[in-house]
Amino acid sequence: MPIFEEKIPDKPIYYEVRQQARRFLSSSMKGNQIASLIVAVVVFAVMAYSFIISSKYIHVSVPVFFLPGLIGIILPGVVSGLISGEIQKRSMESLLATPLSTGQLVIAKALRAVLPVLATVAAILSLVLILLVGKLIYGDDSAGEFYSGWISIPAGIIISLVFAYAVTGICLAVSAVTRSTVASMVTSYGVMMLVYVIVPSIVAPIYVAIVGDGTGMEAYLAALHPYGMVALTAVEPLMDRANAGLVLILILIGLLIQGAIGFFGLAFAASRMEQLKRKGIEG
């Protein structure tokens, strides 16, 4: 298929990222993308103003708490329709006809998440910088309950990046079994709500009721949740009643769980696309 071969770069799995960057740099974004960008800039400006006037009382680690939430909100809108959209547009058959393997196609789709995630991390780091500038101007009287920013900020970013990988896997797995972008987005948010909100809200009270409150056991449970990990690596009193070494081990286990969610999500999407490919060949 010479037409496809001419369009495929030497490293096809980076095709999506390069195309996305080119569209952004050439200002060839769609109207909804421009509107989203304007909203994001306005929200960032409001947050930056609020942080700088209150910087004396806000610890530099605080902006990192926004990172998992922002990733959980932004990524499904970016990633969830990437496979189902091909089905909806009836372009899946031509996509599967390229020399790329289904694994490469899924990785290329997953790489759509890279630029939004990096932009979100950059925005959070910008807020950290704004806080530092504000502290130079207004002084620093923030509470001493946080770990040093040199520890909590990198830890929070690493945890959030692993969480972003998990979210990408979930969204692409859902996208591979839905037929429209809207259904894919709604289902992706629903699955994430189930995994990260509903299940923890059921398990946590039962767990605390069994082991008893005031034992520090809740810290061990929190170490398996993305937001719990960020909190434990930032807020020092959360570790006071728990064994720090065991908590760190559980955080590593939690990161492995998030990584496994992302990996198996991508693998499921690839296997689903392989089924569609074989069905097309046999049909």
Write structural notes for this entry:
With 283 residues, the chain is mainly alpha-helical. It has one domain. 73% of the residues lie in helices and 0% in strands. The protein contains 13 helices and no strands. The chain starts with a helix and ends with a helix. The model is unreliable at 1-10 (pLDDT under 50).
Quaternary status of these chains?
A: single chain
What is the succession of H and E elements? HHHHHHHHHHHHH
Low-confidence stretches: 1-10
Helix content: over 70%
Number of helices: 13
Which band does the percent of strand residues land in?
under 5%
| Class from secondary-structure proportions | mainly alpha
Please sum up the structure shown.
With 283 residues, this protein is mostly helical. The protein has helices at residues 2-7, 15-25, 31-53, 66-79, 84-88, 92-96, 102-110, 114-138, 149-175, 181-211, 217-222, 226-232, 244-282.
Features:
73% helix; 13 helices; disordered N terminus; mainly alpha; 283 residues
List the helices and strands and how they pair.
Blueprint: H1 2-7, H2 15-25, H3 31-53, H4 66-79, H5 84-88, H6 92-96, H7 102-110, H8 114-138, H9 149-175, H10 181-211, H11 217-222, H12 226-232, H13 244-282
Helix pairs in contact: 3-8, 4-8, 4-9, 4-10, 7-13, 9-10, 9-12, 9-13
